[in-house]
Amino acid sequence: xxxxxxxxxxxxxxxxxxxxxxxxxxxxxxxxxxxxxxxxxxxxxxxxxxxxxxxxxxxxxxxxxxxxxxxxxxxxxxxxxxxxxxxxxxxxxxxxxxxxxxxxxxxxxxxxxxxxxxxxxxxxxxxxxxxxxxxxxxxxxxxxxxxxxxxxxxxxxxxxxxxxxxxxxxxxxxxxxxxxxxxxxxxxxxxxxxxxxxxxxxxxxxxxxxxxxxxxxxxxxxxxxxxxxxxxxxxxxxxxxxxxxxxxxxxxxxxxxxxxxxxxxxxxxxxxxxxxxxxxxxxxxxxxxxxxxxxxxxxxxxxxxxxxxxxxxxxxxxxxxxxxxxxxxxxxxxxxxxxxxxxxxxxxxxxxxxxxxxx
Length: 359
Ligand SMILES: Cc1ncc(COP(=O)(O)O)c(C=O)c1O
Description:
Layout: E1 10-11, H1 22-30, H2 45-57, E2 61-65, H3 68-83, E3 87-90, H4 95-98, H5 103-106, E4 111-114, H6 124-128, E5 136-140, H7 153-165, E6 169-174, H8 177-184, H9 188-192, E7 197-201, E8 212-216, H10 218-230, H11 239-251, H12 256-271, E9 277-279, E10 287-292, H13 296-310, E11 312-313, E12 318-320, E13 327-332, H14 335-338, H15 342-357
Parallel strand pairs: 1-11, 3-4, 3-5, 5-6, 6-7
Antiparallel strand pairs: 2-8, 7-8, 9-10, 10-13, 12-13
Pyridoxal-5'-phosphate binds near residues 67, 68, 140, 144 and 201.
């Protein structure tokens, strides 16, 4: 495989191929195994990871899934079948709505009630206005497409209590629960205790390869295992994905507060002169958005030129805006973004805007 090299030398983008090359990941994974580590079974990496996450999240049981997409659809399917109800509530910018080709409906016959304003967090008032029996409601904490926004703790509890009184289940899209925890400053199990089912990602905060875990009570996880098998997700020997996640759990989870501090410092540097705008201000989590007064295509081109000339990657993707003269991108601080000083990021954004203006 020698001879394949990436043009990216440094990157603000969490998932840039810098620290996650196969070789570096394999080296980290090797440190966790010895000759006796079994690939499968109760002492294999998947079972170890499931037990650790169940413990951290304070749930009876946890189950590995190859993707969060599958894990969440299974959780909602179970809540729906138990209650004989097909509708669930989720924010219009929920991953389930935007990125999953309506799998909840095509595969499971469920209906998503788009709840709340697409550009604002879900509120108790939005939930109270639903007016039909729900199987479940989904909270994405933090709400990624809103710049990592989170409801206040008491607001969240009020929303969940309201949904529960209607007999619906509460499901947490905790793809980035470690990021959310830096805001709530409560143990993971206290956050997870608010929900019947909790999904966490193995490759976002934890920087693994891929994969997800669903945690809940034992009966729910037993039923989820059946659905995982039906959907083709009961893959044996998923140990490389579990091992990669375990390396992140051992090393990265504890760095989240430092990532959040750095995000706050970067956002302050960006907002210092008003050329661009970091939102929310200050960021609530290590993840926030940078809004630019320049159209998407010009910004993409400027970023591609900076990457080609300096090996510097600034984002994974540039987002459009209802105002075509504006665009935005996400910064999710992890080890990659820790390599950049706040002033350097602000300078780079100026460079993007200068270049975009002259294209
Ligand atoms: C908030 C959120 N939920 C769910 C998912 C789905 O996870 P997966 O890519 O493992 O299917 C993602 C993935 O980006 C996500 O960001």
